[in-house]
Amino acid sequence: MYTDGALYLGLAGETRVTMPLNMCNRHGLIAGASGTGKTITMKVMAESFSDAGVPVFLCDVKGDVSGIAEPGAQSAGMEKRIDKFGLRTSFSYRGYPVSFWDIYQEKGHPVRCTVSDMGPDLLSRLLGLSPAQQGVLDIVFKIADDRGLLLLDMKDLRAMLGYVGEHREEFITTYGNISVQSLGAVVRSLLPLERQGGGLFFGEPDLDIRDWFRTAPDGRGVVNVLDCVKLVQNPALYASFLLWMLSELFEVLPEAGDLDKPKLVFFFDEAHMLFADAPKALVQKIEQVVKLIRSKGVGIYFVSQSPSDIPDSVLAQLSNRVQHALRAYTPAEQKAVKAAAQAFRENPAFKAADVIMELGVGEALVSVLDEEGVPGMVQRTAIVCPQSLMAPAQESTRRSALAGDGMEKYDKGVDSESAYEMLQEEQAQAEKQAALDAEREAFEKEKAAFEAQKAKEEEAARKKAEKEAEAQRKKLEKALEREEAQRQRAAERRKAQLERQLINTGAQVLRRGLLGTLFGGKK
User: Fold this and answer.
1) Could you tell me if 298 and 89 are in contact, meaning their C-beta atoms sit under 8 angstroms apart?
2) How far is CA 77 from the centre of its chain?
3) In the Cβ-directed half-sphere of 190, how many Cα atoms lie within 13 Å?
4) Strand 15-20 vs strand 6-12: parallel, antiparallel, or unpaired?
């Protein structure tokens, strides 16, 4: 409950325990064993922030946080608690303005981001890539950027990795060495993320983080509830979402300094899922963002069973703490209890390590910063009761909230033309060109064969014609020879005949001459 510029968390004896609104962006931790009241505390704080006009983001791990959209149910137990906390005149059962979100697109508006928004640095940290593998991923993003190939979803990234692998020899001189082993490692590292639902998380329309900074018409902050019942079973995707969201907030929001109230408050339930087996680089990035995002006016509250679930580097940034009961049945658990107790500013009235194991359901050790930023003395506190329903919301309530929150623009996915489609088109064009080239080559071969056959036939015809011409020439020559021989024979016969005639004529003349001589010139 919000009152007088502070969150009313509960009672320590007769003393009200409050958390100043201007210190709420110093981050916090809500811890405790299962069933000790962590979720109730988270809902009480979320309601208070909403009443103060601060938008809230909640992880709904068990499905019961959705009840914040409906008024609480009146009961004898609730009425006793209302009187106990002195809320008779100010308490009312009521629901809060809620937007439901779901990465798996089943129980809320889809939450998406593009691969390009995630970027090679965050993606490498998330996938736990080695420096060499990260270098290859940097090259893949650079090639995509240089060639105007948008990386929006997982199929774009896979298509780009395949494309670079096929053309790596072309890119080595321009972008550096691209080993097949590193490419293969990047592809393999995507498999767990895809199996856990990365194909749904990466895509369009991508979430504009500013849509979580909304207030209802009555001035209360909108409570954005992310359905995590399925998500917490997939830590790689849960960590992807957290890392992207915090980085996006850090990039989008301007420096704000110290504000009267946060711009936005996040609650991450089952926070140990974010850090279980997380690569060191990922933890370092989360730590960096958690440190710096305070100055952007954003508060982050991790909810987990034990403070030991949170890395020390992150735990050190959590100034506001609500510690519910812990159990200490093993040496490791006893050590965790001792560590949790030592994190508080000591209260001389009791020993925190003993009280942690004695707390009942709905009780907690609370230590928050005062208005000057000084950690308050730890107090054993009975947490105030929530005003909304302490059970899952009805399906009709969920549908009504989804239809009336103005976020329907995210409901229908968009498959824009991006790297996958462009590379598919390029491949289709290449295949088409290859088919045309093959067809042209076949045509050229057929043409060459035809021309060769034609040349062969022409050569054969030429040779045949030459042979026939030669035969004709020889025939003609023989005919001419025969004619010449006939002329020769005719000429010889004529000559012989003329000679005979000449001989005959000469003989006659001679005979006449002789006779004339003999007979005095007379015959």
Assistant:
1) no
2) 49
3) 21
4) antiparallel
Instruction: Tell the burial category of 196 from Cβ atoms under 10 Å away from its Cβ (0-12, 13-18, 19+).
Output: buried
For the CA atoms of the chain, what is the radius of gyration? 50
pLDDT values of the chain reduced to their tens digit, one per residue, 523 residues: 898 899 999 999 999 999 999 999 999 999 999 899 999 999 999 999 999 999 999 989 888 899 999 999 999 989 998 998 988 888 999 999 999 999 999 999 999 999 999 999 889 988 889 999 999 999 999 999 999 999 999 999 999 999 999 999 999 999 999 999 999 999 999 998 898 888 999 999 999 999 999 999 999 999 999 998 888 888 778 877 888 888 888 888 899 878 899 999 999 888 887 777 666 766 787 888 888 888 999 999 999 999 988 988 889 999 999 999 998 888 888 898 999 999 899 999 999 999 999 999 999 999 999 999 999 999 999 999 999 999 999 999 999 999 999 999 999 999 999 999 999 998 899 889 999 999 999 999 999 999 999 999 988 988 888 888 888 888 888 888 888 888 888 888 888 888 778 777 777 777 777 777 777 654 4
Of 318, 229, 253, 396, nearest to 31 by C-alpha is 318
Closest CA to 364 of 32, 65, 48, 19: 32
Report the SS3 class of residue 323. Answer: strand
Question: What is the C-alpha separation between 116 and 236, in angstroms, rounded?
Answer: 18
Contact by Cβ (8 Å): 310, 22? no
- Dihedral angle, C-alpha 477, 483, 485, 491, nearest 10 °: -150
| H or E, element range at 304 | strand 298-304
For 350-488, strand residue ranges (E) read 363-367, 379-383
Secondary-structure breakdown of the chain: helix, strand, coil percentages, each rounded to the nearest 5? 55, 15, 30
Q: How far apart are the first and last CA of the chain?
A: 186
Q: Work out whether strand 363-367 and strand 379-383 pair parallel, antiparallel, or are unpaired.
A: antiparallel
* Long-range CB pairs of 175-178, under 8 A, 24+ apart, other chains included: 175/139, 175/142, 175/143, 176/135, 176/139, 178/136, 178/139
Say which residues have a Cβ less than 8 Å from residue 291's Cβ, sequence separation at least 6.
Answer: 317
Closest CA to 202 of 424, 418, 56, 58: 418
Output phi, psi for 295, to 5 deg: -70, -10
Tell me the residue type at 67.
G
Specify the amino acid at residue 132: A
Distances (CA, A) of 94 to 60, 97, 214: 19, 10, 19
DSSP 20: E
* Integer Cα distance of 182 and 131 in angstroms: 10
Please check whether residue 285 is in contact with residue 127, taking contact to mean a CB–CB distance below 8 angstroms: no
